[in-house]
Each structure stands twice: as structure tokens, then as C-alpha cells.
Design goal:
Keywords: 4Fe-4S, FAD, Flavoprotein, Iron, Iron-sulfur, Metal-binding, Oxidoreductase. InterPro entries: 4Fe4S_Fe-S-bd, 4Fe4S_Fe_S_CS, FAD/NAD-bd_sf, FAD/NAD-binding_dom, HdrA-like. One of its GO terms (molecular function) is oxidoreductase activity. This is Heterodisulfide reductase subunit A. It holds the Pfam family Pyr_redox_2. The chain has eight helices and 22 strands. The strands form six sheets. Strands 1, 2, 5, 6, 7, 12 and 22 form a seven-stranded mixed β-sheet that branches. A seven-stranded mixed β-sheet has the order 14-20-15-16-17-18-19. By secondary structure, it is α/β, with parallel strands linked by helices. The chain folds into two domains: 187 residues, 3-Layer(bba) Sandwich (FAD/NAD(P)-binding domain), CATH 3.50.50; 158 residues, 3-Layer(bba) Sandwich (FAD/NAD(P)-binding domain), CATH 3.50.50. It is globular and about 70 Å long. It starts with a strand and ends with a helix. Helix 6 runs parallel beside helix 7.
């Protein structure tokens, strides 16, 4: 492991998703230097992996990719991808010290030109997590077609050290002995935009714990619907059949005290309706059913979006699904209690989509002075009037790091956090005579 290098920036943004990118660009456009630390090999977060956004049904990639490119080429922004934030603490001199660890890509970032020759010649195939596990990727690859940066990363767990990638690399960028590289950042202000994770299916035994064929998550359905998805159309994963009957099960891991998750994840109703509308266009003869507890259409034009889905013939059943199991022919049995008085019923579908809830994407306790609420999301002492301000002077937060929310609210909060940070930086730079 190499010795720690120390770099100075005006601000640190933790998380390179849509909220983190918006905050970084807002600060950088005001001539503040910004470091963006992202744990994945590419920036873009969850949004770059979506098909479309609700309620406008705009292309998610068309919105996210320009921001990714703008951040990558901005003179005041430096991206630290494939990095973990180990600790963040005040250092006693009025600044923050952030210790990050650059995980080994086993590819020299300064030499890699993104030609993907290593990927084309690699003989090892493994399931591609960026395609929901439905397609295969190579053991060394650029994460996805519009990844930023376009730098390959080698999966050491699956690489068999055959040497094919190193042989064909025109710039000798492949280095099998690369080690983690620790870096220290000294900054004046911090914006935490660490996003969210989703509830693991293993926590829901009544829904098959992720082992029932043709029961998938909503993020996997996003990949099936995406124009650059694994099949280029919607097919049932188990046998490649076009599904004639598709069901969405709501509140999977949300509003569930048995899992310790009593809150609503806010976006699940709307993304299920969005996916159902897209499916009705892709598979016009398919029957689409949404099993819901309550429809929570909370944003601008969201109620109209819900009514449009009803008008399109999407079937809404007010029910709580109790059990899901598969059959030998690939069909899925959904057993539920109809809340409209029809009792316990079992319906069969070709494909079932679980609308999984949101969980905190990162736990700052012990690594930072930040505190969390009982639900695990970051605590804001001024949640009703200034939610982006944390309990630590100089640290701000935005997006799903503070709690479940949609893309529109995440972007708005990111700009609010950047505005608070810019005001703070203006005074702190004067007080400390700071030059990054």
C-alpha cells in the first residue's frame, strides 16, 4: 500500500449519483474546487440505470449522461471513482480531513484509453449486475456503454489470470499487482449525497427470498424496459417467453414493522405505475395488475399519471399479498386478501415484479460526526425548514441520504445543499485565507 497523498479542495461531495452531480456542478460553476467520491466504477448512480422517469416518461439516460459528462470535463471538479470514504472528521484547523481508499481496478487509469480490447478478448463471462443479472459481462470491462470515466475495471474474483487482456492492451494499462491507494482530502465543506439501497429479497421469505423463477425486482424490470437492456425487449427471464400476464406487488419492505421499516418509500407506487404504462406499450396484449395497499401519488401531476394508467386498462387491486410461489411451467401464484371484500384469492401470472422499498445507502456512524435517525437515514435538526443542513457545521446533505424521495426532489435538495455550502465557503475562505 502506498503512502497517503494529501489533496486540497474547497468542497467534498460524497456520492456521484444525480444529487451528488448536481451539487458538484452548482459549486463548481461558482468557481469552487470540488472532489466527488463515488464507490462505483462510474458516476451516475441509480438514475443512469433506469429506463424512463415519471411522470413525464423522459429518457433517464438523456438527463443523466450530460451531467456526468459535464462533471467529468469541468475544470473545477475531480472525480474519485471506485473509492470508499473511510473516515471524515474535523482536523482542528477549521477544515475537514477525509480519508478515502482507491480500490484497485487492476488497470492504470492514466494509461487506459477505453478501447475495450481487453474486454473483447477476455474469455471469462460472469453475470452482469448492471443488467440485473440477466446478461453476461467479461471479467474485465468498461462498466457500461456510457460509463464515466471510460476506464476498464478487472474483477479479481473471477479473473483466471490468463493474460489475454494484458497481451492485447495497446497502452500496457493492465496491472495485475495493483494495490489499494489511500488518499487524504482536506476540504472546507462537505455535501453527503450517498443515495439509497434497496431491500434484499432474502428478507422476505413469503415472497420466495429471491429464488422463485420469474419473480424480479423493480430495478431488474427497469433493465428489461431499457432500450439498451439485456434482451432488447421484455421477456420472461426463465425461458425467454413474452409474458401475457404481469403483476406488481407493492410495499415490499416498506411499511413493514416486521422488518423494522415502518416508513413509506414514497416512489414505489409511481415507478410501478410508470413501468406498467411502459409495459402496456411494449406488450399491448398483456394483462397488467398492480396489487397495492394505498396509491400515494404525492407530486405534481402524479395523480393524473395514476388516472392515465387506469384509463389505459391497467388493473389496480387493493390488497396485501401474503404469499408468492412458483410452478413448474414458470407461472407464479400470488395469494392475496382482497381489501374490497372478496376474501382470500389466488391469481396466476407469468411474471411478478416486486416494488422493493428504499433503505439508507450508507452508514456514517463511527466514520463521521454525523448522526442518523431511527430509520438509518441522516438526521437533520431543521428538517422542516432547511433539511439539507445537518447537525455538523460545514456538512450538508441532499437526496435519498436524508430519506426516500424522487428524482425531482433529490435534484432540488442538491441545489439547496450547494447554495448552503457556497454561503458557508464564502465566509470560511475569508476567515482562513484558504486557497485550494
Amino acid at each position: 500500500m502506498t503512502s497517503r497523498e494529501t489533496l486540497r479542495f474547497d468542497a467534498l461531495v460524497v456520492g456521484g449519483g444525480i444529487a451528488g452531480l448536481q451539487a458538484a456542478l452548482d459549486l463548481a460553476d461558482q468557481d469552487y474546487t470540488v472532489a466527488v467520491v463515488e464507490k462505483d466504477a462510474s458516476i451516475g448512480g441509480t438514475m443512469i440505470r433506469l429506463s424512463k422517469v415519471f411522470p413525464t416518461l423522459d429518457c433517464a439516460s438523456c438527463i443523466t449522461t450530460p451531467k456526468m459528462a459535464a462533471a467529468a470535463h469541468h475544470k473545477n471538479i475531480r472525480l474519485f471513482t471506485f473509492c470508499e470514504l473511510e473516515s471524515l472528521h474535523p482536523n482542528g484547523s477549521g477544515t475537514f480531513e477525509a480519508r478515502i481508499l482507491k480500490k484497485p481496478r487492476y488497470v492504470d487509469e492514466n494509461r487506459c484509453i477505453g478501447c475495450r480490447q481487453c474486454e473483447y478478448h477476455c474469455p471469462v463471462y460472469v453475470p452482469d449486475e448492471n443488467q440485473g443479472g440477466f446478461a453476461a459481462r467479461k471479467a474485465i470491462r468498461v462498466p457500461f456503454s456510457n460509463a464515466v470515466p471510460q476506464i476498464a475495471v478487472l474483477d479479481a474474483e473471477h479473473c483466471m489470470l490468463c493474460g489475454s487482456c494484458a497481451t492485447v492492451c495497446p497502452t500496457d494499462a493492465v496491472c495485475y499487482d495493483q494495490e489499494p491507494d489511500p488518499v487524504v482530502l482536506e476540504v472546507l465543506a462537505v455535501i453527503v449525497a450517498t443515495g439509497f439501497s434497496t431491500m434484499p429479497l432474502e428478507d422476505k421469505p413469503q415472497y420466495g427470498q429471491g429464488t422463485v423463477p420469474n419473480v424480479i425486482t423493480a430495478l431488474q424490470m427497469e433493465r428489461l424496459l431499457a432500450p439498451h437492456g439485456p434482451y432488447n425487449r421484455v421477456l420472461r427471464p426463465s425461458d425467454g417467453m413474452e409474458p401475457d400476464s404481469i403483476a406488481f406487488v407493492q410495499c415490499v419492505g416498506s411499511r413493514d414493522k416486521s422488518l423494522g421499516v415502518s416508513y413509506c418509500s414514497r416512489v414505489c407506487c409511481m415507478y410501478a405505475i410508470k413501468q406498467a404504462m411502459l409495459l402496456s406499450g411494449a406488450l399491448p396484449l398483456a394483462d397488467i395488475t398492480i396489487y397495492y395497499m394505498d396509491i400515494r401519488a404525492f407530486g405534481k401531476n402524479y395523480e393524473q399519471f395514476f388516472q392515465n394508467a387506469q384509463a389505459m386498462g391497467i388493473h389496480f387491486v387493493k390488497a396485501k399479498v401474503a404469499w408468492i410461489e412458483g410452478a413448474e411451467n414458470g407461472s407464479v401464484a400470488v395469494r392475496y386478501e382482497d381489501q374490497m371484500g372478496n376474501g382470500v384469492t389466488t391469481a396466476w401470472h407469468d411474471l411478478v415484479v416486486l416494488s422493493v422499498g428504499k433503505l439508507p445507502g450508507w452508514n456514517p456512524v463511527g466514520r463521521t460526526p454525523l448522526e442518523t435517525e431511527s430509520d438509518g437515514f441522516l438526521r437533520s435538526p431543521y428538517a422542516k425548514i432547511a433539511p439539507t443542513i445537518t447537525g455538523v457545521d460545514g456538512i450538508f446533505a441532499a437526496g435519498a441520504a436524508l430519506g426516500p424521495k424522487d428524482i425531482v426532489d433529490s435534484i432540488a435538495e442538491a441545489s439547496a445543499a450547494a447554495a448552503h455550502a457556497a454561503s458557508y465557503l464564502l465566509q470560511r475562505k475569508r476567515d482562513l485565507n484558504w486557497a485550494a
